[in-house]
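RECORD TYPE: inverse folding
INPUT: structure tokens
STRUCTURE:
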């Protein structure tokens, strides 16, 4: 309670007391009792109550988060400057003060009735560039420009929320949404769209003596028909992705089988080449061995091998006269 409220309260009590004492004085007078003291008290209280009333009606206290517009019967209808926070004096009867809040104010338009100031659904329905309807929930945070309170009062008085804020927000959203397709609104161009709304809304509110502090795009809904179409599209895309996954899996399995078969074939070729090369090397070695053996076979060696193959008990061999002489085996003696 500020000082003005205290003065007005005291004035009310003074008037009640004056009336009470006046009634008492009238009762005493009707009974032929002395009422001089009561009459004097009642008169004094009337004077005090009148002074307090005049003082209370002439004093105005403006809160720190308010500005006061003084309405007057003089030319212009209002004072040119708003009252700053604090205690002020105005002319009783001929002047009145209307206060306006300069603190932050919030206005919400939502699909849910309990979230907005108006009862019932109050979201914004807008059409995208490709003709789809979207339903948008939004909140705007704003305040009255403290330096333009008088102009706001002259133009809108206390009707600025329904007369300016609400229609300007709805118009800015519809204008911005109409520049994009539905897919862009909900995904790639959402932030860009919000920036456009901010710029347009800030300019329009400023022309009407308000300041935009923030715009919040709370949610985007779709019509039931479009939501069903989107759901069907998502299902079809998921099925297509699943089919593509199965095809890719089959391709990978076929490629794996081909690589395994190719590996087996390559292994068989390598094994065959290895066996052939081994056979060639073996044949070459046998040929070289046979050649070396053939070169080393002299008549004397053949005779010696022949002798070795004879019965182990033979000590002397007789040959006809004129044949090649053969030496006796080791350990045998030459015949006499």
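DESIGNED SEQUENCE:
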């Amino acid at each position: 309670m500020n000082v003005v409220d205290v003065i007005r309260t005291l004035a009310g009590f003074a008037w009640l007391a004056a009336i009470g004492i006046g009634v008492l004085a009238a009762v005493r007078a009707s009974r032929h009792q002395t009422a001089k003291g009561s009459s004097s008290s009642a008169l004094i209280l009337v004077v005090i109550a009148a002074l307090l009333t005049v003082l209370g009606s002439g004093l105005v206290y403006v809160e720190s988060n308010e500005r006061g517009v003084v309405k007057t019967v003089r030319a212009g209808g209002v004072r040119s400057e708003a009252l700053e926070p604090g205690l002020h004096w105005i002319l009783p009867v001929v002047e009145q003060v209307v206060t306006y809040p300069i603190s932050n104010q919030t206005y919400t338009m939502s699909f849910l009735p309990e979230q907005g100031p108006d009862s019932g659904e109050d979201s914004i329905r807008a059409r995208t560039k490709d003709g789809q309807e979207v339903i948008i929930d939004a909140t705007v945070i704003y305040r009255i420009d403290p330096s333009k309170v008088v102009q706001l009062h002259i133009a809108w008085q206390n009707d600025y929320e329904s007369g300016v804020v609400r229609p300007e927000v709805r118009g800015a959203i519809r204008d911005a949404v109409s520049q994009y397709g539905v897919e862009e609104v909900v995904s790639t161009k959402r932030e860009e769209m919000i920036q456009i709304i901010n710029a347009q809304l800030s300019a329009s509110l400023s022309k009407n003596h308000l300041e935009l502090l923030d715009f919040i795009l709370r949610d985007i809904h779709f019509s039931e028909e479009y939501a069903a179409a989107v759901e069907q599209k998502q299902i079809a895309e998921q099925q297509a992705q699943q089919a593509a996954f199965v095809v890719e899996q089959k391709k990978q399995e076929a490629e794996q089988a081909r690589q395994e078969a190719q590996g087996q074939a390559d292994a068989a070729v390598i094994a065959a080449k290895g066996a052939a090369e081994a056979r060639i090397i073996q044949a070459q070695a046998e040929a070289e061995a046979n050649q070396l053996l053939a070169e080393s076979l002299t008549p004397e060696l053949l005779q010696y091998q022949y002798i070795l193959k004879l019965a182990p008990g033979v000590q002397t061999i007789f040959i006809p006269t004129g044949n090649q002489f053969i030496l006796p085996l080791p350990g045998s003696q030459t015949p006499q």
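NOTES: The CA atoms of residues 26 and 290 lie 166 Å apart.
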